[in-house]
Amino acid sequence: MIALEEDLRVRKDTLNEFKDVTLRVLNYLPNVLTGDKIKRDYKLHVSNSAGLTKALRPINQILFIYDPIIFESDFNRLMMLFSKMKIRDNEYAEAELFLIDSVLYTIQQSIGCGFDLLSTSNSGRKHVGNRFEELMRAVFNELEISNTRKVLQIPYVTDDGEKIYKCEMDLIISPYKKVKSTSTHLDENEIVVSVKTTSKDRMGKMFIDKILLEKFVKHKQKVIGIFLNDVQRSKDNNTSFTLVSNLFMVYTQFLTELEGVYYLDPPPNAHKSPFNKHMAPFSQLVTKDIWNLLPSQL
Question: Is 216 left (phi over 0), alpha (psi -120 to 50) or beta?
Fold first, then answer.
């Protein structure tokens, strides 16, 4: 078996691969965590080893499953739930919705904690983001929803001739058996998805990209955002939320309106009006909204 740090860096394509690495991290954590503080609903863990102190990212103790046995059981329950999630217009109990968010949150935060402990922040950050994109793709694959990463090439004229702006789209999800969007065209029935661990410094780009894409393809284009959370550890051993909610509403009212923003761990403002009209837990996307956004018959 490869070392845990290397395992965290390896691309993951299936939910079972994510389960395996999560179990490795959950079994590793008790051996290295030496203390924690609780701020709001978050645990701030530290690890002291050989005179070196490492601080972990804030962990939502309501969502995160610390016990490997419970996690594996909940993961198996989630995998069984996917058969129900593939059908439109099903009703879900609160416990089922919580299960979706909790298991996926535990997977992604386990990966983040693993990098906090075993790697430097700079080298680990990109891998954490990549694993989150792969996790979302694995979820849509399990739902049997076609998806792919795509780069739209947008030509523009300069004094030196025509140039190409490459607009990277983390994910395109499709109602067709195969994604129809190409590097030069977006299908209006498909959804452009921005997948980021946090909206910090990235929220505005979604709105700008939507305007840019619609100008280029000359039709309305559905755009949604998927985020892990918007919370960070602050210097005074506390937590702070990074969602600039007022700016989000300014963008929504004066630039363009996104089709939705979804969190595994929504910040407090996401639950309040008027933000809750635009933001929701990730479980709402995969049980309800995705089927409303994707045409049922084509």
Answer: alpha
